[in-house]
Amino acid sequence: KAGVTQTPRYLIKTRGQQVTLSCSPISGHRSVSWYQQTPGQGLQFLFEYFSETQRNKGNFPGRFSGRQFSNSRSEMNVSTLELGDSALYLCASSLAGGPRDTQYFGPGTRLTVL
Amino acid sequence: GDSVTQMEGPVTLSEEAFLTINCTYTATGYPSLFWYVQYPGEGLQLLLKATKADDKGSNKGFEATYRKETTSFHLEKGSVQVSDSAVYFCALSTPGRGGSNYKLTFGKGTLLTVNP
Fold this sequence. Notes:
The complex is a heterodimer. By secondary structure, chain A is mainly beta. Chain A has no helices and 11 strands.
């Protein structure tokens, strides 16, 4: 079974631009979560989607948004980029996002904001 | 709120040495506990998990036991290899809004370097 895929793997943007990242979950998985990883803050939860609905959101500004499509693929968007948005963005999928479900991670998208 | 504390390292060991990475947690309810590993330039891979007290998760020679009385989930391996060099993250599942979905709360990660 194919794993979680994320595109693109690397992005370079300048301040003020916006960016869209894509995530394709493991086949059959309906829950998709996004995490931001930085050296200073570590791994932080952004949001989670299930059946095209956002069920949970972390403590990030409204510039960070996402959506999920009917095939469970997900995108996240960051508008008005800031230098501090430079990070590795990880997508994870699970069957239903339940308490014992394992989240499987993709390789991440490395975003650099100049 | 829920949180995870793990030794931050870095930890440097010689091949075949014994490894312990401590992890303690604070959580309401009965979370599931996980260890993930991240190799350079890659995403996170699940190493092992435990979903209830006294469960032992194991994989590739690594083990961790869910200790509710000490709120701990320490990672151990009897004999490390150079290929085990990576960053290890302890995590717990915490309920989201409405309690119907769960997110992972991670520790800061522990960098392990194993020398030949």
